[in-house]
Structure formats: C-alpha cells, structure tokens
Hints:
By secondary structure, the protein is an alpha+beta fold. It contains five helices and twelve strands. Strands 3-2-6-9-10-5-4 form a seven-stranded antiparallel sheet, sandwiched between helices. A three-stranded antiparallel sheet has the order 1-11-12, with no helix packed on it. A two-stranded antiparallel ribbon has the order 7-8.
Amino acid sequence: MKKTHNELIDGIKALPPFPVVFVTVGKNIMVAGAFHFFSYNPPSVMVGIKPEKYTYELIKSMKEFAINIPSKEQLDSIKICGSLSGRKEDNKYERAGLTHKQGNKINSYIVNECSVNLECEVVHEIDFDGSHKWFIGEIKQVHVDENYRRSDTLMFWLGQFREVGALIEGRKDEDIFL
Ligand SMILES: Cc1cc2nc3c(=O)[nH]c(=O)nc-3n(C[C@H](O)[C@H](O)[C@H](O)COP(=O)(O)O)c2cc1C
C-alpha cells in the first residue's frame, strides 16, 4: 500500500543513489554526490555545490573544475576529502593517499588514481536559491583508463554507499569503451 507523505523532503529521500565523484578545482579536492549528466551536445555535466564550501568559492573564481570518478576501493579517500575543508587543510590529497597532476585544458588538478577525469569549463550557473548551487561544465578533455569498468564505481545517497548493480541489459563496458 502506498502512503502519501506530508513531508515533501521525503520525495528527495526516496530517490535512488547517485554516482559519487571527486570534484577538483585549483589545488583543492572535495566529494560530491550531487552530480549528473547534463547534455550530449555539447558534452556537459552538472554538479551541485553548497555555497559555504571552499570549492564553491574556487569554482566561482576559476570558472572550471574536473570530475574524477573514484572506485569503490577508494571509500576511505572519499570520507577524508568529503569531510575536510580546503580552507583549513591545504593537503587533502596527501591525507587521502591521492596524487594529482594539472589538467591539459584547465589549470586545476586532476586525480591520478581515478580511472576517469573530465576537465570542464563552467558554461552556466543555475540561479536558484536552493541548498546547492549547480554549475554546468562543458567537457573540454577526457581521460579514461583502459581498464575502467562502471561496475568498479561507487554510488551514494543519504549516508549509504552502494555498489553499481549487475548489468541486466545492454552492451558490456568493454564493448563501449575499447
Ligand atoms: C559521500 C559524500 C557526498 C557529498 N556530496 C556533496 C555534494 O554533492 N555537494 C556539496 O556541496 N558537498 C558534498 N559533500 C560534502 C563535501 O565534500 C565536504 O563538505 C568537503 O569537506 C568540502 O570541502 P571544501 O570546503 O574544501 O570544498 C559530500 C560529502 C560526502 C562524504
């Protein structure tokens, strides 16, 4: 039996999990679960950052960011980068056991240990007075490790970390990427 909820936030709580990513900008790194595909053409993604985060300040000024897709083995690094602020801790990478290099098309770092790095230029900011400020980033450079498998990635919502489920229909990752 379906129950009608008066608490509208329950509609958000009921959503399935989202991919969790490292967002890098300048020399900083943070974690975002508010991340989504936005457009095929031009290839663009969107990320939601709370305005009080250091990352928000950096994206506003640099107009760029990178999305780095972690594997489920990197959960400890996710917890570290998702709890320390770059305002107080200037070497989150080292604390999280991660290394970086500068992107090709952006001035910000990308994460060496992530199989996928998307270098993005901010093309739009959504002007909406919500909890998260959404930045739309047009992808300017893509790095994908040949051993990357979607099944190695990690999903997150409401404090729950999950694996990606089994493929039930469609092409295998190796037929799409290689
Ligand atoms: C699993 C997980 C998901 C998160 N998702 C978001 C998010 O989507 N947006 C956001 O602003 N903060 C999110 N956070 C919190 C930030 O990553 C965290 O506050 C971080 O320390 C901010 O760093 P900064 O102040 O250096 O930008 C998340 C944290 C975790 C652990």
